[in-house]
Amino acid sequence: MVIRHHPRWANLGLEWLAAFDKIALIELRRKVKAAKVKLLRVGIATLICVELEKILGPSVLPKPPKPVRVKAEQKPPASLTRVPGVEKNIALGLQLLALRSAIKSNCAFGRAVRRQFDIDGQHACEVMKVARVYGARPEIFTRLSWNALLHLASPTLPAAVRDALERRIVVGERIGTAEIRRAHGRLKAGKRGRQADQRAQRWAA
What we know:
- Helix content is 68%, strand content 0%.
- It is an all-alpha fold.
- The chain folds into two domains: 2-56, no CATH class; 82-204.
- The radius of gyration is 40 Å and the shape is rod-shaped.
């Protein structure tokens, strides 16, 4: 009965057997009989458990406390993390513009870009487009996301609209992609927009 209900003690091996040597079993039996317990073996087992707990500790160990959850380190705001990425793109764009000025052939330029920078043509066009307009204007490119810069540097954006947006950005207004798109209007809609995009790609190349 003791082994069945208290397996932790029994699993202690020799320590378990040594504990029984310290218990006066005859004295325990005498106490139980004197108490006139109906089930003698149950009474004896109960007193044995009491003595074993004194020697071996509780038969059921308390559950270990749950580990304290460490809060994940908060990510820095996007306004801080986006600037290095934008600066990297601007630097790449300026390098590509310098390379473009030295290589007149489109095919030769494309091969040189793939060989030296390992980037696709679309990304090359985008970084060149933004760097051509804002490469020397950190007061603009450090305050916008890359997507917003792409829209602001678009050759299809009317100059007056771009100038107005730039003035607002320089004085500290928060301008996002959605607002630039609204200011752009519907110039890119339909066939006219597709033709403008094609001209922009040729211009960046």
